[in-house]
Design goal:
The structure is a homotrimer of 230-residue chains. Chain A has 230 residues and is mainly beta. In chain A, 0% of the residues lie in helices and 30% in strands.
């Protein structure tokens, strides 16, 4: 079902059972897999590939217990040229995927997130709201990128890294702040980042480490709790 | 495809390509996203929202190597009023979601699980069979809630927490017992809970901790292995 | 939509909205859920069950930043007899699932992977490319099995275990080598395995441990970093 208001470019390939809602704009040379759902207002550039069974442009929802209520006027999802998105993924409204971004299968990115040029958001990675991801960043499979996080350019985040942003763990409406990962830092697989820690430029966090305080630039930190390795 | 035996209330909105199998009951003011599959016997209350590409009421399956064989007569999936379920999720038969529950995207809940009023089961969280989740519980994104676990009211479980229930790791048909998390306890992100540990009332488990034995009420435990922080 | 070139056996059950692309071969007594997508060239044996909203035979994709480019001539996905696959899963081309394999929901297996007879790849587990999984292996829910890994027969991998294969974390085109897990070894939940470690026959890795070097056969290792428990 393609809504009559959709604007579709040249050389667009549609799979079976695709749903395109109102006011969607799709560029040229785009491939859309079977059973893809493109929700209203989504804007897609040229040479974009969308895997099967993926939802693009989901609006926010919530229940009584959730601190953040859905915004009334979220911007559309904007997908720049040469972006590739996998299968069974869910990308919300008010996300910007810059040129050349790769998003894996079974991946989700919530609203108010920007992913910079040529960055990778791996399979089964989850990105929460209000987070900024730089250029040429690698977020590997299974990572959890919390809300209110800043990831600068050329950061490498290994598989299954976990982060958090609420040091009071739901006890009240305190300000949430996710980690800040500075340019070129590398995080080993299954590391745990506590709220508001800063990982310095080109610092290295060992696999399985638990980072409870800031890591200086160019240092390597390992262990639980993480300690600088001289 | 809506089976002729389905009972559908007033003001129900169906997306495209929805499949509703036999003996499904749907209340009033329900919104069902595109490509949703509602398997037979599922019961849905009023004011329920179901995201795209989600499966409701999946029966159990297994292979030769699996200890638990599918029950022959599982109850239907029951979804109470004001429940919200995300996209690309899979919820089994014989699950009860109480009023106001929120289930995220890419989430799965297996059979014989109850989720209490207003609780949250976050995106990409997986809940195994035979587990009881209380009221106003928060299970954040990416958590793994093992089988045979008890989570009391107002527990907070941070992102990517992992639990287990089989201390013999598949060596035989020993009794499985998951952790017990008492009322108001809080578990930090990426913590690891071993089989059968009890986390006491209002206890706090630090992010990245490995909990090998019981945690007393009101205490904070951190590290690997977890130790009480005085 | 079933492509005219598909070869379909006897007693095959199709759900609604199923898509079967060209040159697919399906055996006898196969059940295919609603909205399943079977991509071209996939070969499916007898008595296979495919859950809803699953993609079979996905070709590889990549962006500029990814070291591995998609092969031009990947073999088809081959699914042997008596295999069961869950819902919302994504299995690539050039995968071989041997007889009796069970694959859970929300699971993904990339190209150049073999899964041996009667093995289990649990829900929400992700298996990367070029990895060999033996017979009667259990990979529990939420595991991350990296590329270039060898898992021998009768290994047990608990929930949420994480592995990696790149000790230079994206710094260049060094050879990648995942862990080797020898026959009968058991890995506790949320353990972290560093690149190229070998876990010896019948060794045990404790839950939450971080394994930075080889584990001898028949030994138990716990902690961060992992140490032999005497």
């Amino acid at each position: 079902m393609i809504h009559a208001s959709a604007q579709i470019g040249h050389n667009v390939t549609f799979g079976e059972n695709v749903v395109i809602e109102e006011n969607v704009v799709i560029g040229n040379n785009v491939t859309i897999g079977h059973n893809v759902i493109i929700k209203k207002d989504t804007r897609i550039g040229d040479f974009v590939q969308i895997g099967e069974l993926t939802v693009l442009g989901k609006p926010t929802s919530s229940n009584k217990k959730m601190a953040r209520k859905p915004g009334k006027t979220l911007d559309p999802l904007v997908i720049a040229d040469h972006v590739t998105i996998g299968c069974n993924s869910v990308i919300y409204r008010h996300v910007k995927l810059e040129s050349g971004v790769f998003v894996g299968d079974l991946t989700s990115i919530r609203e108010k997130v920007t992913v910079g040029e040529d960055s990778i958001v791996g399979r089964n990675a989850i990105v929460e709201t209000n987070t900024r991801i730089g250029k040429r960043v690698t977020i590997q499979t299974g990572c959890y990128i919390t809300a209110d996080m800043i990831i600068e350019d050329e950061v490498f985040i290994g598989p299954c890294v976990s982060s958090s942003n609420d040091k009071y763990m739901g006890m009240g409406n305190f300000k949430h702040q996710g980690p800040v990962i500075k340019r070129g830092a590398k995080i080993g697989n299954n590391a745990t980042l506590l709220p508001a820690v800063t990982i310095g430029e080109n610092a290295i966090v060992g696999a399985g480490s638990v980072i409870t305080k800031d890591v200086p630039a160019n240092k390597t930190v390992v262990g639980n709790p993480g300690r600088i390795k001289e």
